[in-house]
Amino acid sequence: MRDLRAWAQPLVHELRRHWPRDAALQPYECCSIELGLHVMQRLAPTMPAHALWALLMGYSFPGMPTSAEDQRALHVARLLLPFFRGPFPWKRALERYRQIPEHLRGYDVDADGNACQKRFPTIASKRQDVYAATLAKSPPYRRDQRQPAPAGRSFYRDAVYWRDVQLTEDMILPPPPEHPLDESHQREPITVTWDDLIATARWMDGESTARGLKAGQ
């Protein structure tokens, strides 16, 4: 599983020191919204800011860049901002974002969610660099830091109860090899012809008939 919050932690730490208690958003929510606005200005600068949800859903806009870097940025944005894949959540987020004091915001967004203008606050002044770097690479994987129990008596939580188990030496297995999470594998695209699809469909029809399956099974 990817760690979808690690990218914002430096900004959240800096913003939290200046964040008002009655703010309409939490620092992480603010950073997520600004990441979305950063995506719109980079990938669809001629489209209204409120159209981000469509971009995250997979719709393309006329004139969108198609470079490998921009495609990666869009892929990362879809991983990090799944909660904005709908017009209402994103509209509501922009409305709340506009209530944040100006000196904490990295953007000005008009009341209709159309125009979006970048700001340059002194608090978390490097946020645009963070957003650009975040979109340049896939988010890291979460790593499980739990250690296996040693031989002897161990306690574990089972719902609301604590239980114990006695482990002997012969029950302790060597740790499995770690999965190489940092390795990158570039897979080549495959080509499927129309004849391949027809042959597969005919095979499926034959299997369904042989097994006596009804339509839809």
Brief synopsis:
The protein contains seven helices and four strands, in the order αααααββαββα. With 217 residues, it is mainly alpha-helical. It has a two-stranded antiparallel sheet with strand order 1-2. Strands 3-4 form a two-stranded antiparallel ribbon.
SSE topology sketch:
Elements: H1 9-16, H2 27-43, H3 52-57, H4 68-80, H5 87-97, E1 107-109, E2 116-118, H6 127-134, E3 152-158, E4 161-167, H7 194-211
Antiparallel strand pairs: 1-2, 3-4
What are the defining features of this structure?
mainly alpha, two-stranded antiparallel sheet, flat
Outline the structure in words.
- There is one protein chain.
- By secondary structure, the protein is mainly alpha-helical.
- The mean pLDDT is 89.
- The chain is 37% helix and 9% strand.
- The protein has a domain at 6-134.
- It contains seven helices and four strands, in the order αααααββαββα.
- Helix 2 (27-43) runs antiparallel to helix 4 (68-80) and helix 2 (27-43) crosses helix 6 (127-134).
- It has helices at residues 9-16, 27-43, 52-57, 68-80, 87-97, 127-134, 194-211, and strands at 107-109, 116-118, 152-158, 161-167.
- The strands form two sheets. It has a two-stranded antiparallel sheet with strand order 1-2. A two-stranded antiparallel sheet has the order 3-4.
